[in-house]
Structures are given as structure tokens and as C-alpha cells.
Specification:
The protein is an alpha/beta fold. 49% of the residues lie in helices and 14% in strands. Keywords: ATP-binding, DNA-binding, Nucleotide-binding, Phosphoprotein, Transcription, Transcription regulation.
Length: 454
């Protein structure tokens, strides 16, 4: 049996009661109102529950077609079915144009009314699910979801949040792995275009000819193998945002075509003679110094200035090391959930090693390191420095306190152990090379490894 809440607005009491009873027998909860004022009040109180509004066209205090926008404003995810005693085709067409789900004549067929209500309820539920998914996606890719509080990151978020509300072209600058695509998504979902597509394209992932057809599309017969018309990503993103990653890799000819799109919002497909119009916002990203590239003639200067209306500098992880502990805990919890186990306990020296490392691969590298550690570290053991890659173990050794305590046998042994461990790490465990670098016999190295438990 169906379930869900309907609102029935009709000034004819007996007929209203009969329709309500019929729909209640189908499993629906039916709220009733005898005029537009009471109907709007009921809708205001139960807007989150009502899936479908059934409203008479002629009410004592309002006309159905005039009331339709007010119903939609109070419950935008609900469907509206208009009922009339004397329906006309013209009124029905007008109602559908204004967004009504259907326009029915009262008393024609009870079975038809039930079928239409069932379809309207199904559509309303689907719209609610889509809205909930969009809300979740928007929350996932919002500025608030970005992990970190470092000043450099906060400055980038402030700039991006301000430009998100506009249609201005944005250029994201920053090293690979710093999170430029995350910024692009946050700009899109923080903009009025949030309900439209977000389409991403890596300009370095395609050869020139293929990139042109991916970006602009083509007409059937434009070249061998073009069996049908193909929409380009510019068309797919129309109404929304197109994210062009690694824009510095774009071929010079395609740079000229992209410049025309930014200036006129139109382009010509391969094999076509007429321009195609789009409504798309472009967000581009690069790990190069595009201004310098433009000055040296390696990138079109006019395209650079058109792309860089607003430049957002996405900071590398090395410029926001205070965020490493926050990111580390987040990723450990994330991978623990994926592996269905408790998050690993992080030893202080391991966290210190993570903070001291330079992170040339930025946040992406940190994420990969912690995923590897989450997989390989036994769940009942804490995450130690020994569970980290060689590069981070070296960072831990190099960050040891330079304050040397008074020399005695214990401290001399500690210094020798640390030095042998550092060379072993630098030589990636190659004991022959380690012995050569240390200037000792291989048998001596093996004995010291055993003595020190390396």
C-alpha cells in the first residue's frame, strides 16, 4: 500500500470528503482545507511532509492557476494537481506550462485520479531523493568540509568563497596534489550553478586531436569513425561549471578556440558550420607559472588574462604544516571506516615525522602514505615511525634534537645507532653500500645491526 501525505483543497465539502476517503483507502494520509487561505496555512505547517497538492481551480478566495506559484513557493518539492468541474484544453495547457503535474476534471474517473496521484507521489519522492543527494554532495564539496585552519588555506578559501557567487572565470594556482580540484568543486557547489553539472577535464590526459573532440564535440561524418553527433564537454557542462585541470598543457590552437568560448559563449564543433551556444563557467587550474609562460610566449597572453580574472593560490602542504595533524586524523578515520576497523593509534614520534616531512606530493602524498599505513599496520598495534616510508623515517632522524647530552657510553652508542640507521635508510637497506659508506667491514655492519636491533 502507498504511504505519504497529500493536501486536498476544495470548497465542496461532500466531494472533498469523498476524494479524501478514496485516497485514504489507497494508503495515503490526506490533509483537507476548504479554501485557499486554510490550504496555504496547512501547507506552511506541513511543507516537509506533503508530497502532492490537489487543488480545486475555483476556490472562494482564489483561482487555481494564480495560486500555483504560491503552492510551489511554499513546497517546491511537492507536485500540484489541479482539479476542475469544467476543464478546457487551453486551461490544462496553461497549467502544465506553469508547472502543474496534471489538470483533471472532477468526477471523470476515480481510477484515473488514483493513477495520476500515484505518479505524482513517485515523482515527488524522486525529487526529494535527488535534492537530498545534491545536499550531501554540496556539503561534501563545500569550503567548510576542507580540513585545515592554516592562514594560507584560510586566505585561499576566503577568496574562492567570494568569487563563487559570481560567474567570473577563476584560475587556481598551486602544486600537484594540493587540492585544486577540491577548490573547483567547492566554487561550483557554492555558486548559483550548484544544481547544474560540474564537469572536469584534465588537459594533459589527451592528445591534441582527441582533446579537441572531447572539449568541443563533432558532427556525424566530420572524420573517419564519426558515426554519430557527439556533444563536447562544453555542452555537457552548459548551465554549470567546466573545470580545466592542467590548463598549461592546452595546445595553442585549442587555446584560441577556448578564448572565443570565454568571450562569446559560443564555438563551432568539428565538422559543423554553425556556432553552438553554451552557458558555462570555466574554472582552470595549473601547477605552472602561467604569467611567466605567457611572457615567454609559451602560453597565449590574452587567454591568460581572460582566465585570471580571479586567481586563487592553493597553498602546498609545506606552507600549512600545522594542518598535518588534522589531516592525519581525518585520513586515519576515513581509511579505518573503509577497512571496517578502529582507527590506528598514532604514536607521537610518528606524528612528529609526518609534521617534519616536506611533502613534495602535498595532501595527495599524505593521503597515500596513511592509506598504506592503515592497510599494512596490524589493527592491534599503534602506528610508529617504522610503519612509515623511508623518506619519513629519515625526516624523523633528521629532526632529532641537536642538544647533545654529556658524552658517556650510552649516548655514544645511541649516536652510532642513529647514524647507522640513517645511512641504511638512505641506501634503501642495501647493506653492502651502507658498509662502504660507513667505512666498515660488512661483517661488522651485520654485528652492529644485530646488537642495535636495527
Amino acid at each position: 500500500m502507498p504511504d505519504g501525505t497529500l493536501l486536498l483543497i476544495d470548497d465542496e465539502g461532500p466531494l472533498r470528503q469523498a476524494i479524501a476517503r478514496m485516497l485514504e483507502l489507497e494508503g495515503y494520509t490526506v490533509l483537507q482545507a476548504q479554501d485557499a487561505r486554510r490550504g496555504l496555512e496547512t501547507l506552511q505547517q506541513h511543507a516537509d511532509d506533503i508530497l502532492v497538492i490537489l487543488s480545486d481551480v475555483k476556490l472562494p478566495d482564489g483561482f487555481g492557476l494564480d495560486l500555483l506559484p504560491r503552492y510551489q513557493a511554499k513546497a517546491p518539492l511537492a507536485e500540484v494537481i489541479l482539479l476542475t468541474a469544467f476543464g478546457t484544453i487551453a486551461d490544462g495547457v496553461q497549467a502544465m506550462k506553469q508547472g502543474a503535474f496534471d489538470y483533471l476534471t472532477k468526477g471523470d474517473s476515480d481510477d484515473q485520479l488514483v493513477v495520476v496521484v500515484d505518479r505524482a507521489v513517485t515523482k515527488a519522492r524522486l525529487q526529494r531523493r535527488v535534492a537530498e543527494l545534491e545536499k550531501r554532495v554540496g556539503a561534501q564539496y563545500s569550503f567548510e568540509s576542507m580540513i585545515g585552519q592554516a592562514p594560507a588555506l584560510e586566505q585561499a578559501k576566503r577568496t574562492a568563497r567570494q568569487v563563487a557567487q559570481t560567474d567570473a572565470t577563476v584560475l587556481l594556482e598551486g602544486p600537484t596534489g594540493a587540492g585544486k580540484e577540491l577548490f573547483a568543486q567547492a566554487i561550483h557547489y557554492g555558486s548559483p550553478r550548484r544544481s547544474k553539472p560540474f564537469v572536469a577535464l584534465n588537459c594533459s590526459a589527451f592528445p591534441k586531436d582527441l582533446l579537441e573532440s572531447e572539449l568541443f564535440g563533432y558532427r556525424k561524418g566530420a572524420f573517419t569513425g564519426a558515426q554519430t553527433d557527439k556533444k563536447g564537454l562544453l555542452e555537457e557542462a552548459s548551465g554549470g561549471t567546466l573545470f580545466l585541470d592542467e590548463i598549461g598543457e592546452l595546445d595553442v590552437m585549442l587555446q584560441a578556440k577556448l578564448l572565443r568560448v570565454l568571450e562569446t559563449q559560443e564555438f563551432t564543433k568539428i565538422g559543423d558550420t554553425r556556432p553552438t551556444r553554451v552557458n558555462v563557467r570555466v574554472v582552470a587550474a595549473t601547477n605552472r607559472n602561467l604569467r611567466q609562460e605567457a611572457e615567454q610566449g609559451h602560453f597565449r597572453a590574452d587567454l591568460y588574462y581572460r582566465l585570471s580574472v580571479v586567481v586563487v593560490a592553493v597553498p602546498p602542504l609545506s606552507a600549512r604544516r600545522s594542518d598535518v595533524p588534522l589531516l592525519t586524523r581525518f585520513f586515519l578515520q576515513h581509511f579505518a571506516a573503509k577497512l571496517r576497523r578502529r582507527p590506528l593509534e598514532l604514536m607521537p614520534e610518528a606524528l612528529q615525522a609526518l609534521e617534519n616531512y616536506g611533502w613534495p606530493g602535498n595532501v595527495r602524498e599524505l593521503k597515500n602514505v596513511l592509506e598504506r599505513a592503515s592497510i599494512l599496520t596490524p589493527p592491534d598495534q599503534p602506528l610508529t615511525v617504522d610503519d612509515l616510508p623511508v623518506e619519513l623515517q629519515l625526516a624523523a632522524l633528521n629532526s632529532a634534537s641537536p642538544d647533545a647530552p654529556p658524552l658517556d657510553e650510552r649516548n655514544l652508542r645511541s649516536a652510532e645507532k642513529q647514524h647507522i640507521q640513517r645511512v641504511l635508510l638512505e641506501e634503501h637497506g642495501n647493506k653492502t653500500e651502507t658498509a662502504r659508506v660507513l667505512g666498515i667491514a660488512l661483517t661488522t655492519l651485520y654485528r652492529k645491526i644485530q646488537d642495535y636491533g636495527l
